[in-house]
Write a structure and sequence with these properties.
about 15% helix, about 70 residues, 2 helices
Length: about 70
Amino acid sequence: AVPGRPAPLLVERSAVEGMARGSVVVDLAADSGGNVEGSVPGEEVMVGGVRMWGGSNVPSQLPVHAS
């Protein structure tokens, strides 16, 4: 990621829709625009049977392990 710029889109919605039902996608960059199209920061979204989780302030959720 480049500070001050949105995260690059790495996974398009069509790729998510092509995944097997029951797949899980975790977007750790959701707060800065997301690497996965359709992810929402802090929310779990279902797209064609695929569960997407958009991380929101992820380092604060693991303060012991975050640098």
